[in-house]
Design brief:
Elements: H1 4-13, H2 22-32, E1 39-44, E2 48-53, E3 60-67, H3 79-96, E4 103-110, H4 118-124, E5 133-142, E6 150-152, E7 156-158, E8 160-169, E9 173-174, H5 185-196, E10 206-215, E11 222-223, E12 226-235, H6 238-258, E13 262-271, E14 274-275, H7 278-290, E15 295-297, H8 309-312, E16 317-323, H9 343-359
Parallel strand pairs: 3-4, 3-5, 5-16, 6-15
Antiparallel strand pairs: 1-2, 2-4, 6-16, 7-14, 8-12, 8-13, 9-11, 10-12
Helix pairs in contact: 1-3, 2-3, 3-9, 5-6, 7-9
Length: about 350
């Protein structure tokens, strides 16, 4: 009998950050060798793995994803647990797939979620596009909710976000004659003040968080000629994020022009909003009730971001949360550790979703 708690704990003891998930990759492949998938793809988009049950190219496909990477401080987000849940689901599928011939099932263990690059790298391989995927599902454990509670969002599950760096170039001069140069300091101060006005404006959630400011160098004989200001922008829909970014860029351009500065900009770790399909959310709710697991609806999307959003730009699907305990340490906290008691109910929920899809 396979001990999934032991598997999760082994993954926990071997955390590897985005782009370096070889231990998880090899453990997943080793586990699949005990089972009977019809196709296994390894090293997908780096250290990703895809397993497929089903040979009929005309059949519809349902897909499930788990993320495998850790943070620099270790597995403090629960991806070791998500990986293990999908390994348990693989066993459930393997034991029952002969009774569900009308549907192919695809399991994806994805690397590099934390950096927002893994989903795009998987999609760029073209493997998923070979299959007629009708529904795509993923979960994330959520501290603050009772253990095993299924947390649904009817539309957006996780916000869009991006880091943005603005480079402002003027002209250095001697500190005794600042009027002969172009110092970006006042422009940077005005930009920061204006960006505070983005928060909650226009009746929709928009958030701007100041991350870092740099102006000049610690050379007291020189008036600064270069500045950088960095923000993280967030919104609850992809359309709202486009508007927020456009407003931010226009604001910086206008301020820079008034101060005689030139501007360049770059985006860092952009995430789209994880926008759910309503019918797929209903499928999750019905499956959860049949496990049974308690279901609650969140009033608002989560403010953090998830790169599962990239799959939902191409396929119908949904992401949901599952409670990891009301008093559980928060995600990315040094004391966080995935609760092993979630492995079996979460895998059973995924399996119920598969069953409902195959019987529809």
């Amino acid at each position: 009998m396979i001990d999934y708690i032991e598997i999760r704990q082994q993954l926990h003891e071997h955390p590897q950050i985005a782009g370096n998930e070889q231990f998880a990759h090899d453990m997943i492949v080793k586990h699949l060798q005990r089972l009977h998938p019809d196709k296994v793809y390894t090293h997908v988009g780096g250290y990703g793995v895809i397993a497929v049950w089903g040979k009929d190219p005309q059949a519809e496909n349902i897909a499930f994803r788990a993320d495998t990477d850790a943070l620099p401080i270790g597995h403090r987000c629960g991806h070791d647990g998500h990986t293990t849940i999908l390994l348990r689901l693989a066993e459930l599928i393997d034991e029952n797939v002969s009774t569900y011939q009308r549907v192919n099932i695809i399991l994806l263990w994805q690397p590099a979620e934390e950096t927002g690059t893994g989903s795009r790298e998987v999609l760029e391989t073209g493997i998923l596009q070979q299959y007629n995927i009708k529904a795509f599902y993923a979960l994330h454990n959520l501290p603050g909710y009772p253990l095993g509670t299924v947390v649904l969002c009817p539309r957006t599950f996780a916000a869009a976000s991006t880091g943005v760096v603005y480079h402002l170039d003027g002209r250095e001069t001697h500190a005794s004659t600042p009027e002969l140069g172009v110092n970006p300091g006042l422009a940077v101060a005005e930009i920061i003040d204006c960006f505070n006005g983005f928060n909650g404006s226009d009746g929709e959630f928009r958030q701007s968080t100041l991350i870092c400011v740099r102006v000049g160098q610690p050379a007291f004989g020189t008036s600064a000629g270069h500045g950088e200001v960095m923000f993280t922008l967030r919104a609850f829909t992809n359309d709202a994020m486009e508007r927020l970014l456009a407003d931010a860029n226009r604001t910086v351009d206008e301020i820079a022009a008034r101060y005689g500065l030139t501007v360049s900009r770059s985006l860092v770790e952009p995430f789209r909003a994880t926008e759910n399909n309503g019918e797929c959310v209903k499928t999750i709710e019905k499956a959860a009730q049949s496990v049974p697991l308690k279901v609650v609806y969140q009033d608002n999307p989560n403010r953090w971001s998830e790169d599962f959003a990239e799959y939902l730009m191409e396929f119908s699907g949904a992401m949901f949360g599952i409670g990891s305990g009301e008093d559980h340490a928060e995600l990315h906290h040094p004391d966080y550790n995935f609760p092993d008691a979630l492995i079996e109910p979460a895998a059973q929920l995924f399996f119920k979703i598969f069953q409902s899809f195959s019987q529809s």
